[in-house]
Amino acid sequence: MAIAGKVKAGKSTLLNAIIGEMVAATDAAECTKLVTWYQYAAAPRLTLFPRRGAPRALPASRRDGQLIIDLGRTQAEDVDRLVVDWPSRRLQATTLIDTPGIGSMTTENSERSTAFLLPEDEPAGADAVVYLMRHLHANDFEFLEAFSEFGATRAGGLNAIAVLSRADEIGGGRLDALQSARRVATRYRSDPRMLRLCQDVVSVAGLLAQAGRSLRQDEFGSFVTLAGATRDDADALLLSVDRFLVSGPREDALLPVATRQALLDRFGLFGVRLATTLVRQGSNSPDLLAAELVRRSGLDDLRNALESRFTQRRDLLKARTALQAVDYVLRREPLPQSRALRAEIERILAGNHEFVEMRLLSAIRSSSVTIPEAYQAEAERLLGANGVSPAERLGLVDDTDPRMLRAVTMETLDRWRRLSEHPVYPRAFTDAARTVVRSCEGILFQLPDRGSV
């Protein structure tokens, strides 16, 4: 899964938040110019893959909890990719790929991302993408459209999620900024243009999430000090960035200016304000404060979206990418058996029901197949738009009793069978309804046998 977006969208910061450790460089270091893969391994290891020559191991060190990667004398333009093996359970199900900023002032950086995410005539390196944006601009639409049509697996937006990645900046950094950002994300999510290009839109305060996942004891102590100051003194200090960094006897007696600068770098002014407020309201331990910062950041919403949209379909997304890669090789280097092999690939892509579901979902989202409004939301859900477990497809909670699951499935299956045979509806709808019927039959197949319930 690639994390993409324009410069300063917060890609590496969000990647650190997802993993829960400071493994991705977030400054202007050479590493931020590379396509960097983060994958699970039992022990840490860094491997550089140059454009020419053999891969080689790189030294690494930690400073203030941050992984420091030293490329030595190698220039970024001479590197194909960097692979970071890391023992994080967050990487066991999904390999994350950090990409340079799109639209970078440095042409090479932007082209490196574009070549990786939107190759002209070959399979992309990622099965899915999380696209970060600060606000929705025309060039964000352009990228999502291009990725939908030409990117990984060409799945018509079903392998993309959009993220408002600096949610704390919406609404001028007020304490209610995250609620404002969620409302904006909800509005984008209901935009038909966005529905066609991505599965979901969520808002995340990436810096807050990263800081919450890696909160240190000394930082918690600083917030306790700020919360314990008089309200007038604390509010005056938190008025603005300039005011927070003022060096004077009164301010320095509260917290040294170097400590305040470090807090600002790690949390941002919004994060400092929020953490101070939360300590006042009862988050009286590092664990409680960290958990509340992460909860409010929106990171859990993003994780849930990634789980239901991507992780549950990871085998399908990987299989589609692999089949397209084989097809690409057969087209580039034809063999006597190529025609038969390509026909078999086409048969699998056309006939496998999970691939049929993906195509129909894409067609519904793009309005190339029209579903009556009364049935569209249910059709998308049954096709797996909100997740592929039986409960998610049926719109029920995860711990629904198996008997109830079976009863609802049978009722739903019967209703969609009738729709698929109804003479009033056009052919395109009845064909789509038959696909939904097959999805309902698949749900029934996943449920325990009646006798074992």
Question: Which terms would index this structure?
Answer:
453 residues; alpha/beta; Rossmann fold; two-stranded antiparallel sheet; 20 helices
Measured distance between first and last alpha carbons: 37 Å
Give the low-confidence spans. none
CATH class of the largest domain equals Alpha Beta
Number of strands: 11
SS-derived structural category: alpha/beta
Shape: globular
Largest sheet: 9 strands, mixed
Our count of helices gives 20
* Sheet with most strands: strand arrangement: 4-3-7-2-8-1-9-10-11
Our estimate of the beta-strand percent is 5-15%
How many separate domains?
Answer: 3
Mean pLDDT, all residues: 87
Q: The CATH topology of the largest domain, please? A: Rossmann fold
Helix content: 40-55%
CATH architecture of the largest domain: 3-Layer(aba) Sandwich
Radius of gyration: 25 Å
Summarize the structure.
This protein has 453 residues and is an alpha/beta fold. It is built from 20 helices and eleven strands. The strands form two sheets. Strands 4-3-7-2-8-1-9-10-11 form a nine-stranded mixed beta sheet, with helices on both faces. Strands 5-6 form a two-stranded antiparallel ribbon.
